[in-house]
Amino acid sequence: MMMHGKKGLIMGMANKFSIAFGISEALKNQGAELVFTAQNEYFCEKISDMAKEFGNHDVFLCDVSKDGEIEAAFDKISSTVGSIDFIVHSIAFSDKNELTGKYYNTTRSNFLNAMNISCYSFTEVCKFAPKLMPNGGSIVTMSYYGSEKVVPNYNVMALAKSALETSVRYLASDLGECGIRVNAISAGAVKTLASSGVGEFSKILAYDRNRSPLRRNVTREDIGGACAFLVSDFASGITGEIMHVDCGCSTIGVKFEDVK
Q1: What is the pLDDT of residues 234-248, one digit of tens each?
Q2: Is 154 a residue of the active site?
């Protein structure tokens, strides 16, 4: 129960198959109290139903793509539940129609929207985090190895994740004086509703599974355990890091013809 007495915010849980749900399960099992944000009323209702599995915790509206929403949500969280110890940012977006084919076909509007939601939202979360963490804490976001190497069809999301990882290092430096640690988890390919929007994603799963030293794909449970460690006091000296959780297999230069 390494998270006993700790309270934190989960941002980006969409359904029971999302990475954020797996992280929430791991944190609950380690004794943490959780609150959640939802993009709109539709997701608020869905997440409220899921939150009952974690003790019927509060859900706050927060559309991270809009100015002022993160600050307003954090003010409500502060006034409702008080200070917290950690934040998990599991939010990313791209038009799925542009997660296939050539990267150079990315439209300007989707490029900017993907960067806004997938990267800038994390910057703004960290900007207002000290309001919720007056005694310090930990913030973790989610990346993917496509930020470092070419993965077919990942396209603009790769650029957003690269920017996100660089942001982690700068934000860790900015928030260190507040006693707040900032890290990212770069997970291997894992099947979620979001990842299913990437063209031929099943081939990426098969490729990772075949070349992994553990001979399997990473799971939400693997990611949840790693995240629970990063936000716990056991990781008190870790900040500005990108932790790879991929069963020992980072996707490098994927060639689908190699997949069996």
Answers
A1: 999 999 999 999 877
A2: yes
Amino acid identity of residue 197, one-letter, is: G
Lowest mean pLDDT segment, chosen from 71-80, 151-160, 189-198: 189-198
Active site residue 104: no
- State pLDDT tens for residues 184-221: 999 887 876 666 666 577 777 887 788 788 888 889 99
Catalytic residue among 42, 103, 145, 154: 154
Q: Which of 144, 145, 170, 207 is catalytic?
A: 144
